[in-house]
Write a structure and sequence with these properties.
The protein has 173 residues and is an alpha/beta fold. The protein contains 8 helices and 5 strands. Helix content is 55%, strand content 12%. Helix 2 packs across helix 4, helix 3 packs across helix 4 and helix 6 packs across helix 7. The structure holds shikimate-3-phosphate (S3P).
């Protein structure tokens, strides 16, 4: 199996929770890129955006992504914007096996509404604003997400099905 496995997709698409389950099943370690960034800076993602700005965050995101991709025996969950700048999608696809957790804009709205607080791009938005931000960002980002090796559209994918699809990919190569 090509490793590391890298989960990509929009905010609140379920990357971390699926990543943890997949890692447990495969006996791999789980790494969350945002957590690594927070550890490095010693402050939260929200504070990094607030104190240092998004451009600073994006530069750091690429730098730490390059580092974590060196670890083979990992399942890695990336922040929603990570593969959408600096040619990071090519980097990710070159190093590992990428999986896109695809959700509809309506699903994303439902999920993000409940989980906005720690996400600086959406924390202060009302429902109408949130809906248009999802539309706008998905219009820009889909082209990157869709380059993943595997695209998972099921709402609650079963780990066993996911593993089957990963194995199928290897056979097709
Ligand atoms: C971002 C997604 C966040 C985090 C940051 C920016 C984005 O990660 O990296 O707030 O641009 O979509 P999650 O996808 O885990 O929310």
């Amino acid at each position: 199996m090509k490793l590391p496995i890298i989960l990509i997709g929009f905010m609140a698409s379920g990357k971390s929770s699926l990543g943890k389950k997949l890692a447990r099943k495969l006996n791999l370690r789980f790494t969350d890129l945002d957590t690594e960034i927070e550890k490095r800076e010693g402050i939260s993602i929200t504070e990094i955006f607030k104190n240092k700005g998004e451009a600073y965050f994006r530069a750091l995101e690429t730098e730490i992504l390059q580092e974590v991709l060196q670890n083979k025996d990992h399942v890695i969950a990336l922040g929603g914007g990570a593969v959408c700048h600096s040619n990071n999608i090519d980097l990710v696809n070159g190093f590992g096996l990428s999986i896109y957790l695809k959700k509809s804009n309506a699903q994303l709205l439902g999920r993000l509404r409940q989980n906005k607080e720690e996400r600086p791009l959406v924390a202060d938005l009302n429902d109408v604003e949130l809906k248009s931000l999802i539309q706008e960002k998905m219009n820009e980002r889909a082209v990157f997400y869709e380059q993943a090796h595997l695209i998972i559209e099921e709402d609650k994918p079963k780990i066993s099905d996911l593993l089957e699809r990963i194995q199928q990919l290897e056979v097709e190569k």
